[in-house]
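Appendix B, record 7
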Amino acid sequence: METNKLFRKDQWTMLFATMFCYLFFYTGRHNFGWAAKGMSAELGINFEQIGWISFSMLLGYALGQLINGNLADRLQPKMMILTGGTLSICCNLAISFSSSYESILVLWTLNGYFQSMAWGAGSKLIANWWGPAERGRAFGFYTMAAGSSSVLTFLMALLLVQQDQSWRTLFRYPILFLLAALVVFLLIAYSHPRLKGYDLKTHRSAKDQEEKIGWKDAYKRVFQTKSFMIASLAIGFQSMARYGLIFWVPIHFLGSNYKESNGNLWLTLLIPIGMAFGAVSFGYISDILFRKNRSKSIRAGMLISCGLAFLIYLTPIHNHVLIGTLMFASGFFVYGPQANFWTFSPDLLGTQLVGTGTGVMNMFAYVFAAIGEPLFGKLIDHTGNTNNIFLLVAVICLTCAIIISFVKHKESIHHE
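Structure tokens (predicted):
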């Protein structure tokens, strides 16, 4: 009994340690949207080129997910997270001293790859410690940490922008928090219960104790699971919509210069705040309202997101109360369903393939997000109106809702 209490305590400790570390990961990734306008002005880069820089990072992240997700099933997730975070910090610092489009493009691509070493590894660590009965809740909290990371990054960026700091400082100061989080994670986290001396037969299911699957067979099983691949396609559009808000909405509110938009800038903080609440809420929403039918839960969230994006498009930017409410709601419903997506990996594929499945699914998410970035930039350059961002987001959300409808409830539950 005492051992069970200790294990329970360590379960939560490992979850919170992983959450705390990932809470600061976006300081090395979501800072770019805030630096884009200053970078464009100083270096003479147009918004389509800015979109291609963002595209390069997301593509590097997508490729990294495909590789590092599988590695997380074989290596220690803890070491992968620490390595990726450290190398990401180095890339951000290098960009802060760069003065050419080409060097920033290369460094931001590498940064995407290094950032990709964390999410799948963290998912694997959590799956190692949490069984199938409680995994939905654990992944909901983990996804909340990612959403909260956007809040912290937006807040830090807002403070720097309002102090008339150079865009270069956005790649220097926020990542200091990531460095501190990595040190804490190094001291606390364990990749697997057995590394703390726990008996696997007591605390894990029989399926969790099977021999590891060869890497080729792992990829083969993932890509041959039809429902999982449909869900992966759907998360691609969900991620494209998410990044449409995270990256381009700050540019929409910045106006022609930083100083004239200070009153509106704080409204953008409501997007990641809504995302954080949505992430932890959708685990309960799918369980209670949709009876664990993840596909229906996701579809409902994306349909609501479609309507919200269209309402934002129609609402005057100076109506702060309404715009603020819509920003919070759009973040809640665009990002919240992502917590439901991650449960497809252990539910459809089993615990042994959590890293590989998460990596493949996240690869789809970021390939599509990458494709979306230059499209958003081209739309702004062509129309000269950043408000059109929300029309495109609405179309993308509707597409996601249609695709996820093809994942049937009876196909999306895998018992371990």
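Remarks on this record: The CA atoms of residues 24 and 178 lie 5 Å apart. Confidence is low (pLDDT under 50) at residues 257-262, 411-416.
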